[in-house]
Amino acid sequence: MTTPICDFVRQYRDSDTLRLHMPGHKGKPLLGMEALDLTEIAGADSLYEAEGIIRESESNASALFGCPTLYSTEGSSQCIRAMLYLVCLYAAAQGKKPVIAAGRNAHKTFLSAAVLLDFDLLWLYPEEPDSYLSCRLTPAEVERMLAEKPVTAVYLTSPDYLGNTVDIAGIAAVCHAHGALLLVDNAHGAYLRFLPGSAHPMDLGADLCCDSAHKTLPALTGAAYLHLGSDLPPVFYEEAKNALAMFGSTSPSYLILQSLDAVNGYLNDGYRDKLAEWIETVRICREKLTAHGYRFCGDEPMKLTICAVAYGYRGDELAGILRSQGMECEFADPDFLVLMITPETGREGLCRLTEVLLSLPSRLPAEQKPPRFSLPERVFSPREASFMPREILPAVQCAGRVLAAVHTGCPPAVPIAVCGERIDEGVLACLRYYGTEECCVVKEI
User: Fold this and answer.
1) To pair with 36 at 20 to 30 A between CA atoms, which of 15, 63, 259, 356?
2) What is the pLDDT of residues 190-242, one digit of tens each?
3) CB count in 10 Å sphere of residue 218
4) Do residues 322 and 356 lie in contact, with contact meaning Cβ atoms separated by under 8 Å?
5) pTM listed for this prediction
6) Do residues 413 and 400 lie in contact, with contact meaning Cβ atoms separated by under 8 Å?
7) What DSSP designation does 203 have?
């Protein structure tokens, strides 16, 4: 498979051309990769008006993923905002205000898009929630929502941060039966397309989907894909590039574009077999740890999410132990330890991890349980709350106040409460449990 972006940049690097253009480093090394760092010079194409090498590279990615695929150099965050903007355009063409029903574990980027685009927002939440990070909805639960209210699109996160997936095929069928689009934040699942039987949302019926190539494929941070279904109305294809441009820098990183281009060759050159072999290796590791007493959650095959409390530890305690042994986890909280592993981890790395975990003695299961979360009262829309006068107070003083802005780090970037919602005792209990000490609330006048 061709790698036109990489080929062009290498030829330019080797040409000894005097660089009278941006960037300011002029190809001279400071970190070491500057010679490969370009801007939109002649022949380099332009990401949002692609007609040359970028268009060819995106066509290669489209062939690999089996659907129209566009590049993002600003992660899935750029793609999420673009997807939601396209839905707003689609609704506007019908003379309607968009209504989007979203799984409650949406990334905070979804909320920033709600503030910017001001669509009507409905929350979907399972009958038996087990963590604010998960939203394992069933087709029947989505069906109940759509039977009651007209919805333009349903937005889901699958896989979620803990490695849980939902029945995309079943939910897609429900959405389409009600005339709704299905959007999927698949940031953690780009590799799912290349399993022996594809589990990628676009192969299961999703209409729009984003992948973070950098999360599970060997791509630079910020490399991502926007995928479009084959049966969308014309406005989606006509406006997709404009939608990405609206939320992206006018100076997209050519280092990240080269990374996406190179990943095409990687995926085309035996990756399916490599992935199948690696997932079997991970399965054996998981079985060995399970036999030793560890318990896992999630069904995503390339993520190990340890239910730490079942082994008698806190998740952040296990993370500290691994850190002392020269290993850094993806995420830890009081209950879970999330380990993201890919074929690049290697057998040696996986064995090293396994040996350390097996060396830890099991303890009596911890008695701690996360507070049961329920949806707070909505007082204002996210957009309304985001533009109101605000103040930051200690969380203990915020009972009854309305949240004005979401301050949550990444990982996991999933808010407990949403701007515009009233902070009740249930929210406060969750904030205490997860260590949030301050809240930005609407100022009382």
Assistant:
1) 63
2) 999 999 999 999 999 999 999 999 999 999 999 999 999 999 999 999 999 99
3) 16
4) yes
5) 0.96
6) no
7) G
